[in-house]
Design brief:
A four-stranded mixed β-sheet has the order 1-2-3-4. It is globular and about 30 Å long. Helices cover 35% and strands 31% of the residues. The protein contains three helices and four strands, in the order E-E-H-E-H-E-H. With 96 residues, it is an alpha/beta fold.
C-alpha cells in the first residue's frame, strides 16, 4: 500500500494503492494540478497488463486540471469508480 500525503495549509491528497487482478488507486481529500504529476507517475509505473481503477469515493474537492486529467484517464480506459455526481457532471461538461 502506498500513501502520499501533502499538506499545504489545509490541503491534502492521500493516494492508496491496492492490487488484486486490477490496480485500484484510491484518492482521498482534495486533488489539484499539483497532485497530477505524482499520480501520473504512479499510473505509468503500473502500465502492465492489469487494468487501473481510480476509486474516487473519498475525493472531496477537485479543480479544473484534475477534472481534465480524470476525463483523459477515462478516454485511456482507466475506470473511475465511485465517482461523485458533481465530478461526473463536470467531466461531462468538459469540452474535448
Amino acid at each position: 500500500m502506498l500513501q502520499k500525503c501533502r499538506i499545504k495549509g489545509r490541503k491534502m491528497l492521500k493516494i492508496t494503492r491496492e492490487a488484486n487482478g486490477e490496480v485500484v488507486i484510491k484518492l482521498s481529500g482534495r486533488m489539484d494540478a499539483e497532485d497530477l504529476t505524482a499520480l501520473e507517475t504512479l499510473m505509468t509505473s503500473e502500465a502492465d497488463s492489469r487494468p487501473i481503477v481510480l476509486d474516487l469515493r473519498d475525493l472531496t474537492l477537485v479543480d479544473q486540471d484534475a477534472v481534465s486529467f480524470l476525463k483523459r484517464c477515462e478516454a485511456d480506459n482507466v475506470t473511475l469508480k465511485n465517482c461523485p455526481a458533481y465530478i461526473r457532471e463536470w467531466i461531462r461538461g468538459e469540452r474535448p
